[in-house]
Input
Amino acid sequence: MKHLISLQNWSPEEIREVLNLAKQVKEQPQAYQDAMHRKTLLMIFEKPSLRTRLSFEAGMTQMGGNAIYYHTGNSPMGSGKESISDSIRAASRFVDVVMARLFKHEDLLEMARFATVPVINALTDHSHPCQILADLQAIEEKRGSLAGLKLAYLGDGCNNVTHSLMFGGSKLGMHVSVGSPAGAEFSPRADIVADCERFASESGGSVAVTDDPAAAVADADVVYTDSWMSYHIPREQMEARVEKFRPYQVNSALMAQAKADAIFMNCLPAMRGYEQTAEVIDGPQSIVFDQAENRLHAQKAVILTLCGAV
Output
């Protein structure tokens, strides 16, 4: 059974095939309007989301299928009255594909181990592969070939978006630069850096981690940032984290260190005045809503691929 658990586990060829299909789906949606006819997607949510639910549910509907929203807070699985393995084995008897947005990556791995239908990672504390597929599609639309481009990420380096950008970028020959505060709490995990350095050596890309925001963004083709307050961060840590991350805020001065035609990205939600200023996210270099739209197309491509509908 083929799943999408992490781009870490997908080959460059598999990523490329999905990106090519996402492009076709976006350009010719009518060609896929019945591709999932009478098929059902189960959407398991432990974490809240706007874009994830809307893009998956709309995508499945637009391809002729159905989607079921299921929140773990109202289920035996969420209350601990039923094991994840039993829950997912039962669910597999009713639906054709499952997506799950969870706190713990280990829980997703357990789902994939016992499911008899494809499982899609819609976000865990380790990885956010669907977001990065949409991001790569958006970059390719704006800048052409991905290979050789420099993508600079600024902010919290130890999170699922950063790690997934590193996986995807390094496998497709990009030069991924992460600018984050020093220390294990804020820097990309050492084991992930090592994996991505190996992927980059095979693709012709590179991976660099620095605590100097100007060095990270120098001559970048793409400047990317994400929330300083991920869902799992307690609210009482906000003041300390804002102080820590303030030097990594993407403002006009920092964007000026990148290439003149660099694009700006944020996977949303975004807080103006924090991880980026309003003039950047609302300015002409920003493509944040283009990348948000591509969640629809990239996830359609993932569903079609995993379900063997192409």
